């Protein structure tokens, strides 16, 4: 079911099964950097260029996904260099600054990102690193020596010579907000430039093939041309001009550059879930435990109902997430060069990053547990996957923060800004749309297993949840605004509700990705299997939130029981095909080889 992605994906997979990727050295950060240089030499870094300059965002995402299957650290290093930083330069830089792109693509400039600070990670608007303009030198002085302003979590700073730094732009004592600067870290002979200090942050709990640093700028001088100034510029006299409607629009354009990195993290997380499930399913169809008195052989793990229930809904979700990730790669390709019309894409990307990374972390943990003691051995890889995937939920945007942003975007027309009067009118619209959804859905009282296990039921139930949560959130926020609260406090008072809405939105959106894919599936695809994945995904999601559906009166107790039984029987049916599904992933044997899959099982 990979469609257009199949060919590039297999090409990159083959590439990663050859030199120089055949062995892993002790110095992982150095090897990861060498591998990145190899990609740059072979021209793959250019995939990250805008399409008009020869890049290919779709292929970039395909390669990123394969890198995730091969090595998360390489995927991150590759994504940072050729994804995030290149995207920032192409989107935020002027035509005169685009020359950097070729230098970055070829790794003549090795880059890192300095956004997060000790005191501020999620709240980018409040960053404290300061870039003060000095007309007498026609340049900025960068400083972050104030308490809490030090840049932290700067991945791979030790091997970088150029840093994309986010800092407050100040001119003659007044601040114009956070802007992006390209800061050279090293001069001739690779010595650090004056005022720059790089210190290790210590060992991270996962993704240890990269190093993480604290970066200090102490009165570092850079030229005026180092400000990425497509949306806001500063002239020789220090006159500041923003080309966008408002400082809010400019900050959004800046944060919009995170889209590529978040897309890649979704791919990496999905790759991690795929590896975890490939290991656990293969183990579960071989390993035997317990038998009934009449049986000769003990039963395979995957024939036990509890094991099926633990693994199969995750496998179905993986298939759905994979369809969503590919839809996103197509959308990113189509939107690549449009800097302001892609709010919807940002909402989808952030939402998918949060959902997929949380799903992958949970999947790895469940798979680890489903392999018993074998799962606890480092050589069997699942403990490492658990450690690494856990970090995905925080980097490139903490999941909770991303989901709060998604809910806020869903409430209002982000493009027009989130002021009180516009929010109030947007909320009236949200109210109308849900009333319609509720009317068409609430009066469907389906109870038989056939009625419950149907597309019609899934479509309506998942849609109803989004619309209902959006409507009730809109109503609650509106009431608070009318009571005089500002937008921030009104939303802050309903955070739990916002998170539920963001979650429901993502589940419905990605459900539709697989549904659309099935509808357009070419002959030769196993529609039966895909339909089963869709059904198990939808019903297991409704089951997981059945408390809410019951509260709303959308489901009654009988329907709820039917759903629970359907999830069990779909899980049992899917267990029959589980090995076929993981084999269809076509992962190279060496990527999943581990002692537990070699273990001899008792033949009886
Ligand atoms: C492996 C790894 C690599 C990284 N690489 C880089 C890099 O190369 N460059 C870089 O700049 N950064 C990098 N980061 C940093 C990462 O982007 C930040 O850690 C992340 O954005 C979260 O910021 P924080 O650590 O300040 O957490 P905080 O923002 O302090 O959040 C802490 C907790 O508080 C919660 N919280 C915060 N605000 C709110 C709120 N308003 N409402 C409700 N809950 C809230 C969050 O949900 C979270 O649970 C990396 C991080 C990791 C783990």
Q: Report the bound ligands by name, code or SMILES.
A: flavin-adenine dinucleotide
Radius of gyration: 25 Å
The assigned structural class equals alpha+beta
Low-confidence regions:
413-418, 439-443
Q: Can you summarize this structure?
A:
With 604 residues, the chain is α+β, with helices and mostly antiparallel strands.
List the helices and strands and how they pair.
Elements: H1 6-15, H2 28-41, H3 57-70, H4 72-92, H5 99-105, E1 111-114, E2 130-134, E3 139-143, E4 151-155, E5 162-171, E6 174-184, E7 196-200, E8 212-217, E9 220-223, E10 232-234, E11 240-242, H6 247-256, H7 259-284, H8 305-335, H9 343-370, H10 372-375, H11 382-392, H12 399-411, H13 420-442, H14 449-452, H15 455-482, H16 487-492, H17 495-519, H18 527-544, H19 546-552, H20 557-584, H21 589-592, H22 595-598
Helix pairs in contact: 1-3, 2-4, 3-4, 3-7, 3-8, 4-5, 4-7, 7-8, 7-9, 7-11, 7-20, 8-9, 8-17, 8-18, 8-20, 9-11, 9-12, 9-17, 12-17, 13-15, 15-17, 15-18, 17-18, 18-20
This protein binds flavin-adenine dinucleotide.
Q: Any descriptors?
A:
6-stranded mixed beta sheet, about 55% helix, 11 strands, 22 helices, binds flavin-adenine dinucleotide, about 600 residues, Butyryl-Coa Dehydrogenase, subunit A, domain 1, 3 domains, Butyryl-CoA Dehydrogenase, subunit A, domain 3
């Amino acid at each position: 079911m990979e469609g257009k992605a199949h060919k590039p994906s297999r090409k990159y997979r083959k590439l990663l099964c050859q030199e120089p990727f055949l062995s892993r050295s002790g110095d992982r950060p150095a090897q990861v950097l060498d591998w990145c240089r190899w990609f740059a030499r072979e021209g793959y870094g250019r995939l990250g260029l805008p399409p008009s300059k020869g890049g290919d965002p779709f292929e970039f995402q395909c390669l990123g996904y394969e890198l995730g299957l091969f090595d998360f650290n390489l995927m991150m290093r590759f994504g940072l260099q050729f994804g995030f930083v290149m995207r920032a330069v192409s989107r935020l830089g002027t035509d005169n600054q685009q020359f950097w792109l070729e230098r970055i693509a070829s790794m003549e400039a090795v880059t890192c990102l300095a956004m997060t600070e000790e005191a501020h990670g999620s709240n980018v608007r409040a960053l404290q690193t300061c870039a003060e303009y000095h007309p007498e030198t026609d340049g900025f002085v960068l400083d972050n020596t104030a308490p809490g302003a030090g840049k932290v979590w700067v991945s791979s700073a030790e091997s970088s010579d150029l840093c994309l730094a986010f800092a407050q732009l100040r001119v003659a004592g007044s601040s114009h907000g956070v802007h992006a600067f390209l800061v050279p870290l090293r001069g001739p002979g690779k010595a650090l430039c004056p005022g720059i200090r790089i210190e290790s942050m210590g060992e991270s709990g996962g993704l240890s093939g990269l190093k993480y640093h604290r970066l200090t700028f102490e009165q570092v001088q850079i030229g005026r041309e180092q400000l990425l100034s497509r949306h806001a510029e500063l002239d020789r006299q220090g006159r500041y001009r923003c080309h966008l409607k408002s400082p809010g629009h400019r900050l959004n354009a800046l944060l919009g550059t995170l889209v590529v990195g978040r897309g890649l993290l979704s791919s990496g997380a999905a790759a991690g879930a795929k590896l975890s499930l490939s290991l656990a399913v293969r183990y579960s169809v071989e390993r035997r435990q317990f038998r009934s008195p009449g049986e000769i052989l003990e039963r395979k793990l995957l024939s036990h109902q509890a094991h099926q229930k633990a693994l199969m809904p995750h496998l179905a979700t993986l298939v759905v997430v994979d369809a969503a990730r590919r839809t996103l790669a197509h959308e990113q390709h189509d939107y690549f060069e449009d800097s302001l019309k892609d709010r919807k894409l940002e909402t989808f990307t952030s939402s998918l990053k949060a959902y997929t990374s949380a799903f992958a972390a949970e999947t790895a943990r469940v798979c680890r547990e489903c392999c018993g003691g074998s799962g606890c051995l480092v050589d069997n890889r699942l403990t490492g996957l658990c450690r690494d995937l856990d970090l995905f939920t925080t980097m490139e945007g903490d999941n909770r923060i991303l989901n709060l942003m998604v809910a806020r975007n869903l409430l209002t027309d982000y493009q027009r800004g989130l002021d009180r009067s516009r929010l109030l009118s947007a909320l009236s619209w949200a109210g109308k749309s849900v009333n319609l959804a509720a009317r068409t859905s609430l009066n469907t009282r389906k109870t038989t297993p056939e009625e419950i296990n149907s597309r019609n039921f899934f479509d309506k139930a998942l849609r109803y949840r989004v619309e209902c949560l959006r409507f009730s959130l809109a109503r609650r926020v509106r009431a608070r605004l009318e009571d005089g609260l500002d937008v921030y406090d009104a939303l802050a008072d309903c955070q739990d509700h916002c998170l539920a809405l963001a979650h429901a939105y993502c589940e419905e959106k990605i459900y539709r990705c697989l549904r659309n894919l099935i509808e357009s599936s070419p002959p030769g695809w196993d529609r039966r299997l895909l339909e089963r994945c869709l059904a198990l995904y939808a019903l297991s999601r409704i089951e997981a939130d059945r408390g809410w559906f019951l509260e709303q009166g959308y489901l009654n107790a009988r329907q709820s029981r039917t759903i629970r039984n359907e999830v069990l029987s779909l899980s049992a049916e899917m267990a029959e095909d589980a090995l076929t599904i993981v084999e269809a992933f076509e992962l190279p044997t060496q990527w999943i080889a581990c002692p537990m899959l070699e273990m001899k099982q008792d033949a009886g």
